[in-house]
TrEMBL record:
It comes from Nocardia terrae. It holds the Pfam family Metallophos. One of its GO terms (molecular function) is hydrolase activity. It comes from the Bacteria. This is Calcineurin-like phosphoesterase domain-containing protein. InterPro entries: Calcineurin-like_PHP, Metallo-depent_PP-like.
Length: 292
């Protein structure tokens, strides 16, 4: 069970999360790592239930699930609830088998060094804020006509903490700028060029530039990320003649709009200890390391 199953965005999809646990078991993965948009919505009853169900399924499969935050995860609440509950490796323990890697977190598994940098910009920010405002107006009307219920709606659909800040990045790189083998992020680095859904929008560039800076500082051999919901492989320069292989992972089927989508595009079996040659020479069209 020494391998790690790296998984793309789950968006709170319980069925797909459980399917990923079965893929992990079949591939001798004792760990699953989700690269953001996991579905950390503990401000809602359904979100707490999702955590409970995934945790129970993970325990049954003898797998521990880790995740970093995507733009659609309420990471401020994770810090509020679990900052004081950390395991020996510094992960925030959300449930016994469910752990969160905060931005800039670094650790080593099986002689392989990792770093995680969550966060991204939501391109549908305006729509999300408008929906929050509509809900707030409805709650106000209900209150006026006698209902005591007036739920807080701010920060329920769009999370102000969604992007990494320059200060967060500076602090993380100042604390440790030594190289890592594997970098896990939600957003893409500015330099990678997937064929679809590059999020080539000015509002998305600042966070992509931050990820690019992480790549050029930590010079990972491989970077896995989510967010684009598209499977692709690219190679980008990381400075001083070094290269980083970028593996973009697809997401759960319900969130995918990619015509050539297959569930296998959403995961990658990372064999540990990591050996660089294992990841060389993969054709761009090859979807992933497939289960046996
Ligand atoms: Fe995302
Ligand atoms: Fe997503």
């Amino acid at each position: 069970m020494g391998n790690v199953l790296i998984v793309g965005d789950l968006h709170g999809n319980t069925t797909f999360a459980q399917a990923m646990l079965q893929v992990a078991k079949r591939n001798d993965c004792g760990k699953v790592f989700v690269v953001g948009d996991f579905g950390a919505w503990e401000h809602m009853h359904s979100g707490r239930r999702y955590f409970d169900v995934v945790n129970r399924s993970a325990k049954k499969a003898a797998v521990t699930v880790y995740f970093l935050d995507g733009n659609h995860d309420k990471s401020s609440l994770l810090h509020e609830l679990y900052d004081d509950h950390r395991d020996d490796e510094g992960f925030l323990v959300c449930r016994t088998h469910l752990r969160y890697a905060p931005r800039g977190h670094r650790w080593t598994w099986d002689e392989t060094s990792f770093a995680a940098f969550g966060g991204a910009r939501s391109t549908d920010k305006g729509w999300r804020l408008a929906k929050e405002a509509r809900k707030a107006a409805q709650a106000e009307t209900r209150r006026r006509y006698g209902s005591s219920k007036r739920p807080e709606t701010a920060g329920t659909l769009w999370f102000p903490e969604e992007e990494m800040t320059d200060e967060e990045l500076d602090a993380a790189l100042e604390a440790d700028s030594s190289p890592v083998d594997i970098l896990l992020t939600h957003d893409k680095p500015r330099g990678s060029q997937p064929k679809w859904n590059r999020k080539d929008k000015p509002e998305c560039f600042p966070n992509q530039d931050r990820i690019q800076r992480v790549v050029e500082t930590l010079r990972p051999s491989v970077l896995f990320h989510g967010h684009l919901h598209v499977r692709y492989t690219d190679t980008i320069a990381s400075g001083d003649g070094r290269w980083t292989r970028v593996e973009g992972l697809a997401c759960d089927p319900e969130a995918s709009q990619y015509l050539e989508y297959s569930g296998e595009h959403s995961w990658y079996v990372l064999r540990l200890p990591y050996a660089e040659e294992r990841l060389e020479g993969t054709d761009e069209t090859e979807p992933s390391s497939l289960p046996a």
